[in-house]
Write a structure and sequence with these properties.
Strand order of the largest sheet: 1-2-3
Helix content: 40-55%
Largest sheet: 3 strands, antiparallel
Radius of gyration: 13 Å
Order of helices and strands: HEEEH
Strand content: 25-35%
Structural class: alpha+beta
Distance between the termini: 35 Å
Number of helices: 2
Shape: elongated
Length: 81
């Protein structure tokens, strides 16, 4: 799998993990300058809550990207609860 496809799979995974907890969440995720970013916003009645977190990457190896996706999704969902 190419690095670009690996990164795309990891960003998709992070967003899916958040939406598994908050199906209505609006999410975005991307990797830039060795940083993996994840943001989510949910609406609860009239209240909007958002959470954004970043993870510093040492590489774009699949295992590290997977770890980052899971870590970020966990931190974002915890903050939104």
């Amino acid at each position: 799998m190419s690095s670009g496809k690996t990164v795309e799979a990891a960003t998709d995974r992070a967003q899916k993990l958040v939406r598994a907890q908050f199906s209505e969440a609006v999410t975005s995720a991307f990797v830039e300058d060795s940083m993996f970013f994840l943001t989510a916003e949910v609406t609860d009645g009239d209240e909007k809550r958002s959470a954004s977190h970043a993870y510093t990457l040492d590489s774009t190896k699949p295992a590290e990207l997977q770890e980052a996706a899971e870590d970020l999704a966990k931190r974002v969902t915890e903050e939104l609860q």
